[in-house]
Design goal:
mainly alpha
Length: 170
């Protein structure tokens, strides 16, 4: 027996066993293998389709996110604008209130000054009247008998002094 040339009986049985194995594989093995390959192909195709759908959804979500960011920026700008307007309004109102308060204070000060001026003038007139009486008493060397007489004389003299003259303006 040679290693390169097998016996014809051995060759026959080898071909017969090979044909049986191929037949069994073709009948039972290959359909299972092809079904598994088909399922794997369908699974991969389905995964690719789902990936494309997910990619499309991701694109839509990105667009939605960009739109929401734009809306948020617009809302932020609107809120900032309203806040600036409110601030300006408050500042303007405060300014107006301060001006009104300053006017009131100035008016009260004017009234107070005027009343104090009037009071001071009355006090000065009173002192001038007393001094005038004393001076007049010394000048004419007479004593006016009652306070009423003194005051009448002083009032009459003050009216004459303070009365506007014919050619003068107030």
């Amino acid at each position: 027996m040679s290693l390169l040339l097998p016996d014809s009986g051995l060759l026959f049985w080898m071909v017969l066993i090979f044909a049986i194995v191929v037949f069994i594989l073709a009948k039972f093995g290959f359909p299972v293998i092809t079904r598994m390959l088909e399922r794997r192909k369908e699974y991969i195709d389905n995964s690719l389709r789902l990936a494309k759908e997910a990619d499309a959804k991701m694109g839509q979500m990105m667009e939605e996110q960009a739109r929401m960011i734009a809306q948020a920026r617009e809302e932020q700008n609107r809120i900032l604008k309203e806040a600036a307007q409110a601030r300006d309004s408050i500042v303007q109102k405060a300014r107006e209130q301060a001006q009104d308060e300053a006017r009131k204070i100035l008016e009260e000060a004017r009234v107070k000054i005027e009343t104090e001026k009037e009071s001071a003038l009355r006090e000065i007139r009173s002192q001038v009247a007393v001094l005038s009486v004393k001076v007049a008493e010394k000048v004419i060397r007479q004593n006016l008998s009652t306070d009423k007489a003194q005051m009448d004389l002083v009032s009459r003299m003050l009216d004459e002094v303070t009365a506007p003259k014919a050619g003068e303006k107030n």
